[in-house]
Design brief:
The complex is a heterodimer of chains A (about 300) and B (about 220).
Chain A lengths: L10 H7 L8 H37 L1 E6 L3 H16 L4 E6 L2 H12 L12 E7 L6 H11 L3 E4 L2 H43 L1 H9 L4 H32 L27 H23 L2
Antiparallel strand pairs in A: 1-3, 1-4, 2-3
Chain B lengths: L1 E10 L2 E11 L4 E5 L6 H8 L7 E6 L2 E2 L5 H8 L2 E4 L11 H5 L1 H4 L7 H10 L15 H13 L5 E5 L7 H16 L3 E5 L3 H8 L5 E6 L2 E4 L5
Parallel strand pairs in B: 3-8, 3-9, 6-7, 7-8
Antiparallel strand pairs in B: 1-2, 1-4, 4-5, 9-10
The chains are: A alpha+beta (about 300), B alpha/beta (about 220).
Chain lengths: ~300, ~220
């Protein structure tokens, strides 16, 4: 019989070989990493979409303001002219215009129906203001309007904008928290799995110790196996998650938030970071579990 | 090599070994005998630092085992070949790979020629590619002995190495141990097989120790 020659394997590969290749915990690690990464892709998509939404709402509402003028009939045009004159000399305003009766009627039509006699009703005059790149001083403008047109009220949408942006920001925070929780759960599951594997392989560990293996060597063998399993599971999970996100409806204005729940541009690269991250989590969790268990197995 | 100074070991509230003093000199051959449960395996475990003495001092290569770190113990084990009655292997690896384990765990390469020679020496060359569960009791013992000596250890500790094999195989294993002793290795064999001890004493100078009443004593001429 020809003597089998030793394979020219690296020390790391040989360390991997001393742990039995399969075990009851093998599928658990891979499945956990895959499932958690799949969920993580969606949490990431939610978080990124919420961030985009918060930015979009913030930018859209921040650029416009409305001046609402309520004045007696005789004063309405005089104060309107005064407001327009004030706006013309206010820095930081890109454009402004008073809405005519037809536009006002169109705004009220959803509530009062068509044919509303706007001119016969004491409806406030609305003036739309668009902010320039350099924003105007809203407090200064308020004071000047109070002096020039006492019936004018400047509404810069802060009232509306703040809760919307806060809501979107909190959804984004929830997404980030979800990712952290998913990571922690994955670490806990892999830790349990690693401890179970070490307990199952107590006899293997005994043999390795008898022939002079250090704890670091034994731990390395288990850590490498669990890290590779987690990476493989996470790669499958991330791929499935990406396919799932890609299958979501494309973003459109009518769909609003729900149809914007995906990745855009470089955001598509984020899920590719998840398998290495899962491997790092598995590496740290298994290493910690291995050294603790090895001390117990003395 | 290995010294015991007034060593005691207690287990479960009772004293298993008491006031044991012994020195395993380089190149010596010792048998350790005594009834089952007398503490032979415990003595060996104290000798390779798997157990710590309850009192007294065990010195391994001039170092008190209590002062050794876990890594130091692992390094010391590389200088000791250990053979058990229930010799354990990694069942998913071939006999050749199992024999190379002492090299593998210290990130060193084993020479294929040395491996082939060693397998030939223990008569297992034809089983190099076999898995441990495919081997008989005697073959497993010889493979364990080969694994114990592959890194050229200073000391070989064997716990009932002939416990699971027939007389013919016992003599074969004894012959291997005697050859190792003649090569300068320090040997300590725990056994209850007095015929084996007599057979060995016919070939070499071996001291026989007996565990009785928790103490290790030099056995008399009745052996």
């Amino acid at each position: 019989m020809k003597f089998p020659k030793a394979k020219p394997a690296s020390p790391a590969t040989r360390a991997l070989e001393v742990v039995p290749p399969s075990g009851p915990t093998a599928w658990l690690t891979t499945f956990t990493a895959g499932a958690m990464t799949f969920l993580c892709v969606f949490a990431l998509a939610l978080s990124l979409a919420s961030g985009r939404l918060a930015t979009r709402w913030s930018e859209a509402l921040a650029k416009t303001a409305t001046i609402r003028l309520s004045a007696p009939t005789g004063q309405m045009q005089i104060q309107t002219d005064a407001i327009l004159a004030t706006l013309a000399t206010t820095p930081g305003i890109a454009s402004y215009r008073a809405l005519d009766d037809a536009e006002t009627r169109a705004l009220l039509e959803p509530w009062f129906g068509p044919g509303l006699p706007v001119e016969a009703l004491p409806i406030p005059r609305l003036i739309e203001v668009v902010e320039a790149e350099q924003p105007y001083d809203s407090e200064g403008l308020r004071q000047r309007l109070a002096a020039e047109a006492p019936g004018a009220v400047l509404d810069d949408h802060t009232r509306w904008r703040r809760p919307l942006v806060e809501a979107a920001s909190r959804i984004r925070l929830l997404g980030v928290l979800s990712i952290a929780l998913i990571g922690a759960t994955m670490a806990a599951m892999i830790t349990l799995s690693a401890r179970a594997a070490l307990a199952t392989n107590a006899e293997v560990i005994r043999v390795l110790r008898l022939v002079g293996a250090k704890d670091s060597y034994i731990a390395r063998a288990f850590v490498r196996r669990f890290t590779l399993r987690s990476f493989a599971g996470a790669a499958v999970g991330a791929t499935a998650g990406l396919i799932g996100v890609a299958a979501l409806p494309a973003a459109d204005a009518a769909g609003g938030f729900l149809t914007g729940l995906g990745f855009t541009g470089l955001g598509w690269l984020w899920p590719f970071a998840l398998p290495p991250l899962a491997a790092i989590v598995a590496f740290l969790a298994t290493r910690r579990a291995a050294f603790r268990k090895l001390r117990e197995l003395t | 090599m290995i010294t015991f100074e007034n060593v005691a070991y207690s287990y479960g509230g009772g004293e298993l070994l008491s006031d044991v003093s012994l020195k395993l000199a380089p190149g010596s051959f010792h048998f350790l005998t005594g009834p089952s449960g007398a503490g032979k395996s415990t003595f060996l475990k104290l000798a390779y630092a798997e157990l710590q003495p309850s009192s007294g001092r065990v010195t391994l290569f001039d170092h008190d085992v209590k002062s050794l770190s876990r890594d130091d113990v692992a390094r010391s084990r590389r200088r000791i070949g250990i053979v058990h009655q229930d010799c354990k292997f990694l069942d998913h690896m071939t006999i050749a790979a199992n024999m190379a384990l002492p090299f593998t765990v210290s990130d060193r390469e084993s020479s294929p020629q040395d491996m082939e020679d060693l397998l030939g020496w223990v008569g297992l060359k034809h089983l190099a590619g076999a898995l441990p569960p495919q081997l008989s009791g005697g073959e497993r013992q010889r493979a364990a002995l080969a694994r114990a000596v592959i890194v050229d250890p200073d000391v070989i500790l064997a716990d009932e190495p002939t416990g699971n094999v027939d007389w013919e195989m016992s003599l074969r294993i004894l012959t291997l141990l005697v050859e190792l002793n003649k090569m300068g290795k320090t040997i300590l064999v725990a056994t209850h097989d007095l015929n084996l001890i007599r057979q060995a004493k016919a070939q070499i100078q071996a001291r026989v120790l007996r565990i009785a009443k928790h103490r290790v004593q030099l056995a008399g001429a009745d052996l």
